[in-house]
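Page 37, top half.
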Amino acid sequence: MDRQGSPGALPFPLVHLRRGGKGDYLQACRSDRAESEAALDSPPNSPPQESPDLPAVQEKAPREPILTLPAALTAYIVLLAVIHLRVLLPPELENWTIDVFGFIPKRYDSSLLNLQIPGGTGAKVWTFVTYSLLHANLTHLGFNLLWLLPFGSALARRFGAVRFFVFMAVTAAAGALAHLITHEHAVAPMIGASASVSGAMAAAIRFAFARGSFLSFSRSDAATAAKVPALPLSRALRDGRVVGFLAVWFGVNIIFGLGAIGVDAETTSVAWQAHIGGFFAGLLLFALFDPVPRVRSDAADAS
């Protein structure tokens, strides 16, 4: 439409029909169609008509999820969840699983030969690891997973599945050894993945504050953040953030451990010595599992 509201240029010509018979009207229609088709078929030499400028469509970059779980950690969590279904068993059978797969220091006490503990000789070997797969209740399991998710995700991406599973087993065994040394004659079984989780946290802080890692100020994407070179242990211990993390971690474990023992030393005690054993194992043995080359001692400081 033009400014006065009259029709502007249309894609077909207007034909004024004279009054006449039916044949005249049909002829005009055929003429209109022919001329319209001719107008649509532009000759090859005619310049192409420019289309109006359209706004460029900008595709938004996909947003990275807040927390993505690597396959190894997902498998570990599923394993813990499936094993926890044992709470649905009859009480006597559930107690049997704890006695056979839980870590009992009294099992290694040769002074009491008449004490019969289910599991036999084999349990003296496998319980160094299997105890870490058992949990008392959903709160116990959920609390361990809550701490494992951020630190275990980075560690599983860095180590890969095989190294990750072996590392979790080694730190569990270190926690059981620390518990055995400090509770030599204890009869109560120890269960829970806390020692392994503590080891994963200790290993993760070896690179967590490095430039581009998941706790640094210049964080990269999850895959890149998990592969930044780790600092040597002697240099990492000079980082104020690492020292602060260590102080808070040890303080919380000792306070919660002593407080729980004061409430009920037999049933609700926290095996904080096992946590410390797993933590030190993860901190010191990290280099044996780490596939990423470390930075030189004279490299730039972490940020």
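Page 37, bottom half:
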Amino acid sequence: MRELTIDQYHTVLPLLDSIQNKAVYALSVIDQTQQGRVFVNEESALTSVLITSNGGFYCLAGDEEDELFIADVVQFMNEESNHHSFFALGVFTTAWANKIDSYHIQHSKKITRTYYLFNQEKFMESYRELEATVQKPFEYLSLNEVIAQEYRDKFYPYYQLVWSSTEQFCEYGIGHFIKKNDQLISVCTSPYVGGGYAEIDIITVEEYKRQGLASQLGVFFIKECLAKNFIPNWSCHADNLASNELAQKLGFEKVGEHPMYWYHA
């Protein structure tokens, strides 16, 4: 397979037509909002593509029968120097899953991801009037460089991979935060923004779960998306019951489940 230059990234968009919002991380790379790499088959006609993001989320799309391309993909996946200590390879057809299953990708575990589409009408019926307020002893903060730096450095260093700098995160990302006693306890942020979508990522410290904090931050996140003409997006592990329940509560509708090859040391 061959690697495209940045100015060629947009040429693979037709291969992603059937995937759409299921790989926002891939769209973010194509948009050059976030860093990554794009590989295609050797022939002049583009029929297969592997898109990798710096955050470790990758996707395969296009022709599942190009054996030379598939062999190159497997070789790429099995070279540890190609990854920032983590990867999650998404496939979106049974044919791609069957093909990958016939090879060995080291340090990977096959899981199932659930994908959703946002229903704005359903969301607005429930949350149109909700104001962005948080009751004491909690403190609400929206994204700024100070909180972004703290988040990336201390709370969730993964965001040092997905966003190359605090400034980039603040310019292109979305973030809503709740603190207690000056400590972050619940966050709703965008790990990936691309193709008009903003992916939702919610984390709440264990002792503060089941207090409605995640729901409230999710509402703030979605309202900011709508104000900026982004479509909020949700995907999660199929066995993450709390995440799946919250997605549906916030107006998302399940559109399918697909395999993902998740890094497993």
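Margin note: DSSP finds nine helices and 15 strands in the chain.
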